[in-house]
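Hi U.,

Before I forget, here's the chain from the pilot set. I'm dumping it here mostly so it's searchable later in email.
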Amino acid sequence: QVQLVESGGGLVQAGGSLRLSCAASGSISSIYSMGWYRQAPGKQRELVAAITSGGSTDYVDSVKGRFTISSDNAKNTTYLQMNSLKPEDTAVYYCNADVRTSYFVRYSPWGQGTQVSVSS
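Structure:
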């Protein structure tokens, strides 16, 4: 079993910054990639940013140039630095990972989510 725990959400004014963290723990053999998704009220969950174990990154167009995803492979942790936040960034942000457990099972667990609210 692998657990993902997010932290760092909160309330910020437009133009401000927040840094989210997601730490993976449990019976981990390998982490192939980690990503951040978000879901706003009444909307579908969308991929915001992802990073592979090799460091390749991908972003949804709406956050390019404002958000940066990074990871510390030794700590099984990924970060999302969010700058120039906009009210439309308001959502619950979820961490997801593509992992292989110590029992050679590959699956994608989710974190519990952290609320990000941006006021105008």
